[in-house]
User: Which sequence fits this backbone?
């Protein structure tokens, strides 16, 4: 839920809610077990309480406070390279080239993500 993607909480909630909803569908009632180190996270609290509205309220308040969509805009720049340090270095240079404007904010330093067929990906928001 904290992998550098501003949409991580929403994606986690959607995925886990879907999986839990499908558990035991054939028998009429299922049970979902969640294991986490973040028991106080709004996603976990909403899932345990089966309270979609609580998650939505928490998420929309955080998005308004941080000017994330739908209250602002985000863009993601992805770069692939053969070596992790090179991919990360290029992404950092790209992030440093962002125009100086109070309306533009580069989130999180670019991080290399898992290798995909020998290519490393860096993302900056």
Assistant:
């Amino acid at each position: 839920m904290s992998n550098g993607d501003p949409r991580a909480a929403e994606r986690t909630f959607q995925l886990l809610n879907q999986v839990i909803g499908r558990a035991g569908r054939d028998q009429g009632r299922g049970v979902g077990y969640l294991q986490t180190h973040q028991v106080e996270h709004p996603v976990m609290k909403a899932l345990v309480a089966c309270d979609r509205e609580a998650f939505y309220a928490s998420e929309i308040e955080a998005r308004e406070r941080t000017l994330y969509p739908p209250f602002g805009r985000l863009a993601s720049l992805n770069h692939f390279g053969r070596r992790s340090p090179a991919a990360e270095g290029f992404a950092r240079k790209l992030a440093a080239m962002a125009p100086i404007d109070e309306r533009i904010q580069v989130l999180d330093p670019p991080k290399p993500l898992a290798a995909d067929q020998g290519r490393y990906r860096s993302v900056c928001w």
User: Anything to note?
Assistant: The chain has a mean pLDDT of 79. The chain is about 40% helix and 15% strand. Residues 7 and 78 are 16 Å apart (CA to CA). The first strand starts at residue 77 and ends at 81.
